[in-house]
Amino acid sequence: MSRAVNAPAGAPFTLHAPATDRILTTVDALLVRAPHDVMFRIAAAVEEWPAHLSHYRYVRFRERAPDGGGVVEMAANRPFGRANWPTWWLSEMAVNHEAPWVRYRHIGGITTGMDVEWTFTPTADGTLARIVHTWNGPSWPLIGALAATHVIGPVFVHGIASRTLAGLARVAEQHASPHSSSVNFHTKTL
């Protein structure tokens, strides 16, 4: 686990920004027409995501930390037409209210070892909300890197993250103004 040495159970995790030397980096970003503190608060309230996002089956804290993070279990569907592919992962979660950012380190599931960072940058029109995922892929001999860069990252990670970001942006905008709408700023897989 990513706690400071000798930190008690339940202490916040020390999670750093995603590494830049990973074989997979996905970036999903939206210009959200809402103040950054509103978007941050909604994104950090992960247990409420299933109420706002139809593709999330559940989000449960296994352990809570005073910063709003902890060990969180998430399950979401990746839709393919009428079919849904179920996904599951377990993460350490850290929340920085001043910066603000929310960071995750996947510690269970197929994406174990993945680092994730949500950032919220104020703009003249609202908030640039950005999710960065970095990962070296699963430890599968011969095909791990290929699976990460051609299937897991672009199809599953981006597919779920882009829906999550868009859905939470809609919620933030509803809180800010009933007449605003988000703008897809950019989405890419590196």
CATH homology superfamily name: START domain
Shape: globular
Low-confidence stretches: 184-190
Number of helices: 3
Instruction: Output the CATH class name.
Output: Alpha Beta
What is the alpha-carbon Rg in Å? Answer: 16 Å
What structural category characterises the helix and strand content?
Answer: alpha+beta
CATH T-level topology: Alpha-D-Glucose-1,6-Bisphosphate, Chain A, domain 4
N to C succession of SSEs:
EHHEEEEEEHE
Ordered list of secondary-structure elements with their pairings:
Blueprint: E1 24-32, H1 36-44, H2 49-52, E2 56-64, E3 70-80, E4 83-96, E5 101-108, E6 115-123, E7 126-135, H3 144-176, E8 183-189
Antiparallel strand pairs: 1-7, 1-8, 2-3, 3-4, 4-5, 5-6, 6-7
Helix pairs in contact: 1-3
Defining traits:
190 residues; 8-stranded antiparallel beta sheet; 8 strands; alpha+beta; Alpha-D-Glucose-1,6-Bisphosphate, Chain A, domain 4
